[in-house]
């Protein structure tokens, strides 16, 4: 049985809808839901299972999980997006220069990147977080730095590939400066790869934020972030599994959406992945 | 270094040990049996195993069974003979003479002599050893050993708490001469159990020492599995993987108590908690601001919220049954309006005051408490946020660098009032990390040191408590309960809790077949 | 054995469909033809004609690519009687594939499994079909390798595909296909990816095997010259349909269909230019009668436009910890030539001979190691980057081989053509727009294409844009690096004609780099033959094609298939010398090139002792 | 041979850089060794004295030299907090981590490769959609979420498996496996999903290659074509991806070991970071990075074994 094309394409659509929804929640929840609803405690309804009053239940301090997960979206998405943005801002020029200039610059940069890649990203983020101290900005910096080597490596590979294309040589003979070649001829051609990698990185960054918060080094309480919520749920797992499930599902859905979207984007942007017919 | 419940070495306490669970009650009357391996789900990771160097309750809890101290306390906190058969204090309080118990065997097969005592004390007081309790011996002028079973310690000046402090393994432990090098990894003592091995972070194995001077223990072995996750520990107990666990998650105690298949040992108090202000932080220099914060906190709700009610609120940190406990003090009730009024009197309108609450993840319930208090602070118009710190960061930032605004800490119940009040609240106090400098407290704590009459002395300490409360130098919150959960087959649990409330003794514990 | 009148295979009303996201696509439709035992039938057509789909259908391999045989019968007179392959179950097909029908494919480099030894790949078919033991199969594999004349067959069996050259690999693939003595061999573009000398060898091999084994061959190709050399009968296909079928002689001599005629007209035939003074456009069917190109060849112009003197280009081979140079690829070795104004110099040679590197070195897209390149007496190699841009690229432009890679996919065509105009300050503001429009007119592209992106164009159209971009600076010289090699023959002819027309009107010079001797003969004034980085022979077109002196030029010319069935050159026992490696250790300095002038302007490299 | 030598030399250089980075980063950690040693007894004079005696006042380069010298000669020093000598401690913890990393990798490979091949063979059919969707969900779930779910299901709910602890396989192989199973699954499920995707992608590419067509044209049965001709070519790329995932696993164990109370390298490193036990942080971070690099080296060498093309170059 052949799966109809429309269905296969719907993967991207579903992904896009999921991602969009999560971003909308992240943007709009703080507008429509007063911030303190996420921290309001009800000592009479601690670890309450889902009820009419608390549709997704409450946590160990009687805080409403629905509001926490909705308002937590903002924190998680903000940290992940900012971290990925940071890794692009650092990784893009590094990768471009390394790939286009080549030679010694490339050797030195890539040796460094390879070395950094030997450190597990989470370990790197954790160590940086420990160096800088736990707070929002530092979490972003930690994840951002930890992700930079990956991005630089991928961009460098792409830049190397594109720099060897005849149209780049054509652009050189057309009298373009190196800067113009990088900006107008190489950059647009590696953007698809950057965009795809960014979606994937975003998914990983959300996981990394959750991981850091899970270890107590990310978001600080009482602010809600998904990772922090999962962390807090650890002690109540068997009694109140929903405290873990609610943020866990939020993370999973977001990452799933990003991955689906990223997959579809890659298929759409990469002619080599096209076909299957 | 030094994790949970540090400073336990300075303490001794006792309290009511309550046993829940009918089968245990019934079976505890039957005759003890020898044999079996008890698997204990220990709540913490043991660290440096050198009894002198380690300051952690977790390690002490285990080593309690390996070591013995020269004297000990009974359940009324009275110092009683232990490895010393008897002891005498000279009239002037400067000379202590210990007569050692003959025939006490170390695990290495040697017999204890006065040389071992001298070795142990010298090792502890030698700064190079890095002993946590070295200051106990600060006033010691000489240690003499006229014969194998006599030790004479001469002090340079009177040190009232000296003997009490020797009742703990930390300072009073006797190690075989020359064993200093190996104590950190393979401790040797003369306690009822021999140290067999430790798989770091995983488990510690103890084996019965048949030549124990107090008679051999019942259990063949004790394996302390180090399981820091409370729910994992509880699951282990329920599935029967573990015979017993300490520190039942607070929210589950009622549930376990109700479980007919498990028994619970609970005692009170384990330790006490208080909220600290940095007295060097401009707003907190004003007593009105500190008082305002006290009014923001509903102590009962906080106890319920952070510890699921497993404790008892108190305004005094003195041991509840001690003479110095100021029962007349009551905690300030929550009154947000009053707090706001006090703040504006001090010149802080809503939103003017910005504070960071540093809480350590080492005590997860501190994080919960901080979150609850934060809500109240915010209700009172204070812009507050939390910074979670690891134990190491808390120590370096709050304890050493005194770089904080508000924090929270717990201490073991210090039954020796001089140690409690002088160290914590005197300007010169060793544990005055809040930069408190109150002339009244300074005067009173100094006065207490030279007050000989116990009743009078107790009165002085009550006055200290009054000042601490009136000036809101800190906000004393509560005493916390200690708990153990066990299978019904574990017998002799009524003997397991050391009077200090922290250490567990397996000497008289046995497993029913 | 069926007699000659019973076809071995007869395809009747074949229709193959492919499911795609946009619905069903018809691969081929209503195709009928037959192959008699011992006969060679060539299916010829341009890309998209459905010729490969037809051959894959016979093997029922089309199904693995997502196709289905919707209609038609594929009757095959197998050993077990006639069956319809279109209806055969998978088990039967497995018994036929590789056993009664063998197949070889286009890419020898990817036709062999890179991680298995030759022996394993040669024997597994034998063991499957013939149930031979390991030793027997190995023995048979050895015989087969000998049959396809692979030297040192014992050693080859133990080797992996990457250790063999392209020609050798194709021989292995053929040997594999021949393993079970199939009655039909399907060869799908078997020589397209190969150099001309190796192509000649492989064609000869297939021809010999066919004759020795009485095997029928179904030969799929786009190359009319190969058809002329191989076919008994020809099937011409176009866009999934059969256009014309007939004996090879008749197809070439008297094509019935318009399409066949156009196709044949577009094919340059080696030798057609004999006696002609200069390049001449191809006479395309349907186009206007071509003007005979009066390429102004100033004979013996004292001022050559470009002089290349002792040009040497070596690429370092990096290795080791610090990526040091461990060896050098001697891509161009002491090459000298010049190009006059309005002249086309062709550089020919097989892959790896250094002809492309030579062209790129002149523009300094590859940095030469030594030598001189004088453009109007300015030494190009001495210029800094800024002057290089201002002086050299203002006068020399390049057109690349792959039309799909030579344009930036993310830039509108107008913007790409505009780049040199604004960068070199040739035009400003609205003037640029006008210039672009004029250039599009010049390369015969509609102006509406200016707003388009490259992917909206066909290969030939893209190559026109690339030429327009090169023309934008009004260059004196265009280096055309295999500029028409990737194009279908009819498109190729149009682009070639455009280039010749531009030369005659604008007086541009070309350095025309190509491996295709017939095309070179058509477009060039002078020809240089390259081999292993050296220019082995250079002279006028007539001198090279009619009086080749260097042995390599000889063998090259003799290997070229001619698109004329009357002039068959396929011979048995062709054996060309394999090209040695151009990689030398660091510090290796080869002897300089010394030439003998055998006739005026005709230089031949003196053979070195080694 | 020269490939091996080059690869080893390159490894040395990377190790050197790893050591430099590790040392530099840990040296900018707030709080210093002296303070950690003295703890609550800290006072400025004592701290200064201790710093002097520990050589903390020496230039960084001297300190680095001393540190790397110690590491090379096997003198890894003692943990500040745990007082244990670091080298045997790391060895013990690495054993635990290696157990779950290898275990999870085996589980992942054993399941992912057939699943990925199966999906590739049925590309764009329901089998592919099912396998691809499942693996997409798999890679989207955080591993600690897997861990929590596994604990809830197998330890709390069904009570089949223990939820915590490490048992040395040398002591009790069966117990060790039982204890390692859940953490390994938590690590392995995401990995499995990832490898399934990679295998599918690689195999899809391979199955479109000419040599696969040639193999079919030889009349080989589809099983041989896919599982021998196809898979033999996928082994290298899949192995490389799996090798790269070792790094990812060593990051994940920090979370998973802490969740399962499984005291391995991840747990130890986390404890060291929490306690600012700088010598232990340095050693464990260095060891993890070195092990990750070593894993990739091994994969590279294995690649040479499975792909003859690399042998010559």
TrEMBL record, chain A:
<dbReference type="InterPro" id="IPR050366">
    <property type="entry name" value="BP-dependent_transpt_permease"/>
</dbReference>
<keyword id="KW-1003">Cell membrane</keyword>
<keyword id="KW-0812">Transmembrane</keyword>
<keyword id="KW-0813">Transport</keyword>
<comment type="similarity">
    <text>Belongs to the binding-protein-dependent transport system permease family.</text>
</comment>
<dbReference type="GO" id="GO:0055085">
    <property type="term" value="P:transmembrane transport"/>
</dbReference>
<protein>
    <submittedName>
        <fullName>ABC transporter permease</fullName>
    </submittedName>
</protein>
<dbReference type="Pfam" id="PF00528">
    <property type="entry name" value="BPD_transp_1"/>
</dbReference>
<dbReference type="InterPro" id="IPR035906">
    <property type="entry name" value="MetI-like_sf"/>
</dbReference>
<feature type="domain" description="ABC transmembrane type-1">
    <location>
        <begin position="73"/>
        <end position="262"/>
    </location>
</feature>
<keyword id="KW-0472">Membrane</keyword>
<feature type="transmembrane region" description="Helical">
    <location>
        <begin position="112"/>
        <end position="132"/>
    </location>
</feature>
TrEMBL record, chain B:
<keyword id="KW-0732">Signal</keyword>
<dbReference type="InterPro" id="IPR000914">
    <property type="entry name" value="SBP_5_dom"/>
</dbReference>
<dbReference type="GO" id="GO:0043190">
    <property type="term" value="C:ATP-binding cassette (ABC) transporter complex"/>
</dbReference>
<dbReference type="InterPro" id="IPR039424">
    <property type="entry name" value="SBP_5"/>
</dbReference>
<keyword id="KW-0813">Transport</keyword>
<dbReference type="GO" id="GO:1904680">
    <property type="term" value="F:peptide transmembrane transporter activity"/>
</dbReference>
<dbReference type="Pfam" id="PF00496">
    <property type="entry name" value="SBP_bac_5"/>
</dbReference>
<dbReference type="GO" id="GO:0015833">
    <property type="term" value="P:peptide transport"/>
</dbReference>
<comment type="similarity">
    <text>Belongs to the bacterial solute-binding protein 5 family.</text>
</comment>
<protein>
    <submittedName>
        <fullName>ABC transporter substrate-binding protein</fullName>
    </submittedName>
</protein>
<feature type="domain" description="Solute-binding protein family 5">
    <location>
        <begin position="78"/>
        <end position="429"/>
    </location>
</feature>
<dbReference type="GO" id="GO:0030288">
    <property type="term" value="C:outer membrane-bounded periplasmic space"/>
</dbReference>
TrEMBL record, chain C:
<keyword id="KW-0547">Nucleotide-binding</keyword>
<dbReference type="InterPro" id="IPR003439">
    <property type="entry name" value="ABC_transporter-like_ATP-bd"/>
</dbReference>
<dbReference type="GO" id="GO:0005886">
    <property type="term" value="C:plasma membrane"/>
</dbReference>
<dbReference type="InterPro" id="IPR013563">
    <property type="entry name" value="Oligopep_ABC_C"/>
</dbReference>
<dbReference type="InterPro" id="IPR003593">
    <property type="entry name" value="AAA+_ATPase"/>
</dbReference>
<dbReference type="GO" id="GO:0055085">
    <property type="term" value="P:transmembrane transport"/>
</dbReference>
<comment type="similarity">
    <text>Belongs to the ABC transporter superfamily.</text>
</comment>
<dbReference type="InterPro" id="IPR050388">
    <property type="entry name" value="ABC_Ni/Peptide_Import"/>
</dbReference>
<dbReference type="GO" id="GO:0016887">
    <property type="term" value="F:ATP hydrolysis activity"/>
</dbReference>
<dbReference type="Pfam" id="PF08352">
    <property type="entry name" value="oligo_HPY"/>
</dbReference>
<keyword id="KW-0813">Transport</keyword>
<keyword id="KW-0472">Membrane</keyword>
UniProtKB/TrEMBL annotation, chain D:
<feature type="transmembrane region" description="Helical">
    <location>
        <begin position="133"/>
        <end position="155"/>
    </location>
</feature>
<dbReference type="Pfam" id="PF00528">
    <property type="entry name" value="BPD_transp_1"/>
</dbReference>
<keyword id="KW-0812">Transmembrane</keyword>
<feature type="transmembrane region" description="Helical">
    <location>
        <begin position="246"/>
        <end position="268"/>
    </location>
</feature>
<dbReference type="GO" id="GO:0071916">
    <property type="term" value="F:dipeptide transmembrane transporter activity"/>
</dbReference>
<feature type="transmembrane region" description="Helical">
    <location>
        <begin position="280"/>
        <end position="306"/>
    </location>
</feature>
<feature type="transmembrane region" description="Helical">
    <location>
        <begin position="175"/>
        <end position="195"/>
    </location>
</feature>
<dbReference type="InterPro" id="IPR045621">
    <property type="entry name" value="BPD_transp_1_N"/>
</dbReference>
<comment type="similarity">
    <text>Belongs to the binding-protein-dependent transport system permease family.</text>
</comment>
<feature type="transmembrane region" description="Helical">
    <location>
        <begin position="12"/>
        <end position="29"/>
    </location>
</feature>
<keyword id="KW-1133">Transmembrane helix</keyword>
<keyword id="KW-0472">Membrane</keyword>
